[in-house]
Design a protein that fits this description.
mainly alpha, 8 helices
Length: 137
């Protein structure tokens, strides 16, 4: 085996070992989230107070459908000792089945903009919320 190949193999092996060592030392919150216990606000508060803000925001977004910035603000309010209650309706909840079916049909035909227009015409969603809703179909 030539010296160049030996050096390349040694460098590759060193990089793999280094990556394995770094991966083992990752903080707990980057490894994977715990499953939510069920009591929404209490679970979000527990995560946030444990310093796991990113996970708390993720859980809150999964539970409520809030945009990222709103969820972050809600988590910050909970940590600061305040309370938070969901405001208006969550985008996508309560959308008529016929509207959903029409938007899905348009989306699957590659007519995403028309699907967003249909959702906006039949709901009170903002453009951004309608776009997120259609992309989630």
């Amino acid at each position: 085996m030539s010296p160049a190949v030996q050096i390349a193999l040694a460098v590759t092996l060193a990089v793999v070992v280094l990556l394995l060592v770094l991966r083992r030392d990752r903080p707990r919150d980057l490894v994977g989230p715990d499953r939510p216990a069920g009591d929404g606000q209490a679970e979000v508060l527990r995560l946030a107070r444990a310093g796991r803000t990113v996970e708390a925001v993720r859980v809150l977004r999964r539970q409520t459908g809030l945009p990222l910035l709103d969820a972050k603000r809600a988590v910050d309010a909970l940590v600061a000792g305040g309370s938070w209650s969901p405001g208006g309706p969550v985008p996508g909840r309560g959308v008529d089945d016929a509207v959903r079916a029409e938007a899905a049909r348009l989306l699957h035909r590659g007519r995403k903009i028309q699907a967003i227009k249909v959702v906006r015409e039949h709901t009170q969603m903002s453009l951004a919320d309608a776009k997120r809703y259609v992309e989630g179909l």
